[in-house]
Design goal:
The chain is mainly α and 522 residues long. 71% of the residues lie in helices and 0% in strands.
């Protein structure tokens, strides 16, 4: 297992630029967690990522109370009593409209990130989350199911915008050695938010007939608190330098992020790295020529650029595969598995919450994993082992009534699946686009990856109940196949990105399916 820094394996653009980049990488000083780097990571995690996960996890426990209120409110407003089937359909809309909002928010992520900047993209997420929380809090007081639906749309838009822009913002702030560690903050936040949402919606807290609106809106307090330091948060130096050509502001932000150790050599090193990433500019262009060249890439230009086809496929496959790997299905099915070993319905739900806590516990170690081990190794190990345990879960669930100890084997299989999911498939898809794409096409690529994620999440939510009823234990086989196919794709085409500058990674995947990203490692 080779976990060393391979930063000297570089594809060169010009002799001048390559010499500067190699020199900078050799002289790279030790990366440090500085005050503003940590503040930005904590603020975005608690102010956007956790609320995103919160809105995923909070909606299930109080579902019956909210459905009953919806039925009563529709009758009072429109004089119509919904049948059981119609009410279930309406509730499916309430749940799934969040996912549709996620797709739309992702689609707008590229435009927001380019036009408003990375920092203001985060502000936009916060505004949408607060507005959604206000809708949740007052929908019952004014007797409006429309307000409930509007709130779900708004938090869905915020969720899509969060997953497409926040990881990009954090990885552009981080020095190259901390890029992966800071990039997984969003993943950790979403995972933690799901658990917090599940806890706050328990009947012992807010998951009651009288208090469910507080369960839906509680996260707003967290958002408001975490936006207190927003004014002082740094903007992405790469965005300022490459996209906006505001060189002095970019240098100031580099110095702020580095803190007291921001010496001239370090600043020059960062500037050379940003210049090398700006491949639309020749290193020999004069400043006026560079300013006149376009920096922003439209979604269509990225989709139609053959050099970006493979990295875009990798990003979308990882983000979509994250959802199609069956993590939500496993959590959904685990309640019935816990009941099969003799737990009551209530205890089984608490056990399921415990499985979610395991997911969160492992997530806390992902910043260390990203700093110590190669992305490629973790991704391949995660995908392959998830396939193994999903197939094993299919087998033991199918024979669970024939073999007495299979009930316990199924629990162990679920826990091992969660463990291996969280070391790779959970965190890496969130930030891998920031390591495969340069500044110009990065927002569009991150947006497409986020669209794939929310779109596949919607597909699973819509199809899984039907497939579960029709296939039983075999419902896990499509997820197994997804993990196998993803393993093969990553084995052939995913380059190692840890500790390497993007200008040395992008050329490795620029020839479509003829690319040989592993050649430089031999």
């Amino acid at each position: 297992m080779d976990t060393n820094d391979h930063s000297e394996s570089i594809i060169l653009y010009t002799p001048e630029s390559s010499a500067k980049i190699v020199s900078a990488q050799r002289q790279r000083t030790e990366a440090k967690w500085t005050f503003w780097l940590l503040t930005a990571g904590i603020s975005t995690t608690f102010g956007a990522a956790i609320p995103t996960g919160y809105n995923i996890g909070v909606i299930n426990a109080p579902a019956n109370f909210i459905k009953e209120w919806c039925n009563e409110t529709i009758f009072e407003t429109y004089g119509t009593v919904l049948s059981v089937g119609a009410l279930d359909t309406f509730w499916a809309v309430v749940v799934s409209i969040f996912l549709i909002g996620g797709v739309i928010g992702s689609l707008g992520g590229a435009w927001v990130a380019d036009k408003l900047g990375r920092k203001r993209s985060y502000l936009t997420c916060g505004v949408l989350l607060v507005l959604g929380g206000v809708c949740f809090q007052f929908c019952r007081a004014v007797g409006s199911v429309e307000l409930l639906l509007l709130g779900r749309v708004l938090v869905g838009l915020a969720a899509g915008l969060t997953t497409s822009t926040v990881p990009m913002y954090l990885t552009e702030l981080a020095p190259i050695e901390l890029r992966g560690a800071l990039g997984v903050f969003c993943s950790m936040g979403v995972t933690g938010g799901v658990v917090v949402g599940q806890v706050m919606s328990l009947e012992d807290i807010f998951g009651t007939d009288e208090l469910w609106q507080f369960a839906l809106s509680f996260y707003v307090i967290l958002v408001i608190i975490c936006f207190v330091p927003y004014h002082w948060l740094p903007e992405s130096p790469k965005y300022l330098y490459v996209m906006k050509q505001r060189r002095d502001e970019a240098i100031n932000e580099i110095k702020r992020l580095r803190g007291k150790d921001a010496k001239d050599d370090y600043v020059k090193q960062q500037i050379e790295a940003m210049r090398s990433e700006d491949t639309q500019n020749s290193i020999n262009d004069d400043e006026e020529t560079q300013r006149s060249k376009p920096k922003q890439r439209s979604l269509w230009s990225v989709l139609t650029d053959p050099k970006l086809t493979l990295p875009l496929l990798l990003v979308c496959a990882l983000q979509g595969g994250q959802q199609l790997s069956g993590i939500n299905a496993v959590f959904f099915y685990s309640v019935s598995i816990f009941e099969s070993v003799g737990l009551s319905s209530t205890d089984a739900k608490f056990a399921n919450l415990g499985a979610g806590c395991l997911n969160l516990f492992v997530a806390f170690f992902t910043p260390v994993l990203m700093g110590k081990f190669n992305r490629r190794l973790l991704a391949l190990l995660s995908c392959s082992m998830c396939a193994v345990f999903l197939f094993g879960l299919t087998f033991v669930v199918y024979f669970i009534h024939q073999v007495s100890w299979f009930s316990y084997a199924s629990i162990i299989t679920i826990l091992l699946y969660i463990l291996f999911y969280q070391i790779g498939l959970g965190p890496i898809p969130y930030f891998i686009g920031s390591e495969l794409f340069e500044v110009g096409p990065r927002p569009a690529a991150m947006a497409m990856g986020s669209i794939a994620s929310w779109g596949c999440n919607f597909i699973v939510a819509m199809l899984f109940p039907t497939l579960q009823s029709a296939w039983g234990a075999f419902v896990f086989l499509p997820f197994t196949v997804t993990c196998v196919l993803l393993t093969i794709l990553l084995k052939i085409y995913l380059p190692e990105t840890r500790g390497r500058h993007i200008s040395s990674i992008a050329p490795l995947v620029s020839n479509g399916f003829r690319s040989k990203p592993l050649v430089p490692w031999s």
